[in-house]
Design goal:
By secondary structure, this protein is of the alpha/beta class. Helix content is 33%, strand content 24%. Helix 1 crosses helix 11 and helix 11 crosses helix 12. The longest helix has 16 residues. The structure holds NADP nicotinamide-adenine-dinucleotide phosphate. NADP nicotinamide-adenine-dinucleotide phosphate (NAP) binds next to helix 1 and strand 2. NADP nicotinamide-adenine-dinucleotide phosphate binds next to helix 1 and strand 2.
């Protein structure tokens, strides 16, 4: 059993903890937090040993009547691997702690790529993370684009990707984020950071991205144009993508017209927290140019920012511990999480 410590039990950390608990070959050694809030209570209710992440805040837990199992350094020392799911920038500061205890660590997409030896997406470059000490699981948007690009590159070759990312202003619980009533080019300069980030997974990929931010919390939406190296028809591309376990091609007759209906669909089907771990891609939107060749591909996909990186973290745990190869890990993760809509 791989003992997994989770440093940061918020949006990503609590989902990763739940996914790890579903796996047959790993267990949550404990989780660390700085505040005795409702998520600290949730960890305790879930029977997870809770550790204090910051020395001078330990007494806050005592005052709140929440018992700690110790401090985060004990958790790191006792874990085979740590998933750092702290807010952007804190992960880089924590690296020293993981080095001190010689514990491999996964960082999240809010960190700069330099924080780790490898930027990781299971479908795209699992092998590069095998036995690595420090791995960054790329952001929700980069994960969504990498999952799409990987099969297209293998099947047809990719000359160029152009993607416009319509991004949610914040997660549902992030009351301080916005915009509330605006549509922001974000960043207004081109390209957005997403294209360069995808290149941390595919260094030789030609990709440009543009970003916007809108008053929504549910999901991101990608409008994607890919110039393929060899031509394909729309049904061929649709079938290829439908064969990917972490891409859900939304059938035409479901009446799912946007992110709201997708979230409702997930909730109706009992997905924990209404999570959508898969890229959700509209089958009808898959279009290739009509002329000879059919190398210009267009499509829309929605990305659930809070959860698509969760199965990737589970696979990265197996990669850094050398516990399984890509096919075995992805199949085990998917089966035990219940991937597939
Ligand atoms: N949310 C998303 O949509 C999303 C998607 C993909 C990737 N990511 C990336 O995932 C990472 C985590 O993001 P998140 O959205 O999960 O953030 P979050 O919801 O704010 O959760 C962060 C957690 O870390 C805890 N924390 C804060 N400072 C800490 C410290 N010094 N040591 C240990 N724990 C600490 C916070 O709890 P306390 O109350 O205890 O401080 C909270 O439990 C970021 O790199 C982010 O960019 C986020």
């Amino acid at each position: 059993m791989i003992a997994v410590g989770i440093n940061g039990y918020g949006t990503i950390g609590k989902r990763v903890a739940d996914a790890v608990r579903e796996q047959p070959d790993m267990r949550v050694r404990g989780v660390a937090k700085t505040s005795p809030n409702h998520e600290a209570e949730l960890a305790v209710e879930n029977g997870l040993p809770l550790y204090g992440a910051v020395e001078d805040r330990l007494d806050l837990f005592e005052e709140a009547g929440i018992e700690l199992a110790g401090t985060v350094d004990v958790l790191v020392a006792d874990s085979d691997v740590v998933v750092d799911a702290t807010p952007s920038g804190i992960g880089a500061q924590n690296r020293e702690l993981y080095e001190e205890h010689d514990t491999p660590a996964l960082f999240q997409g809010g960190e700069d790529a330099e924080v780790a030896d490898v930027s990781f997406n299971a479908r795209s470059n699992y092998g590069e993370a095998v036995d690595a000490d420090y791995v960054r699981v790329v952001s929700c948007n980069t994960t969504g684009l990498s999952r799409l690009v990987a099969p297209l590159r293998k099947e047809y070759g990719v000359e160029k990707v152009r993607a416009t990312l319509v991004r949610r202003g914040g997660d549902p619980a992030q009351s301080g984020r916005g915009p509330i009533n605006d549509i922001l080019p974000d960043p207004v300069t081109l390209p957005s950071h997403h294209g360069p980030d995808v290149k941390t997974v595919f260094p030789d990929l030609d990709i440009d991205t543009l970003g916007l931010k809108v008053p929504a919390t549910l999901m991101h939406m990608h409008s994607v144009n890919v110039t393929l190296s060899t031509g394909a028809t729309a049904p061929e591309v649709r079938d290829l993508l439908a064969g990917e376990d972490r891409i859900h091609v939304i059938p035409e007759d479901t009446g799912i017209d946007g992110a709201g209906a997708l979230k409702e669909y997930a909730l109706d089907r009992g997905r924990p927290r209404g999570d959508l771990w898969e890229n959700c891609l509209w089958g009808e939107s898959v279009t290739t140019e009509d002329g000879p060749g059919g190398t210009d591909l267009y499509l829309f996909q929605a990305i659930h920012q809070e959860s698509d990186v969760v199965p990737e973290n589970v696979d990265a745990i197996r990669a850094v511990t050398g516990a399984a190869d890509r096919e075995e890990s992805m199949a085990t993760t998917d089966e035990n999480m219940g991937m597939g809509l």
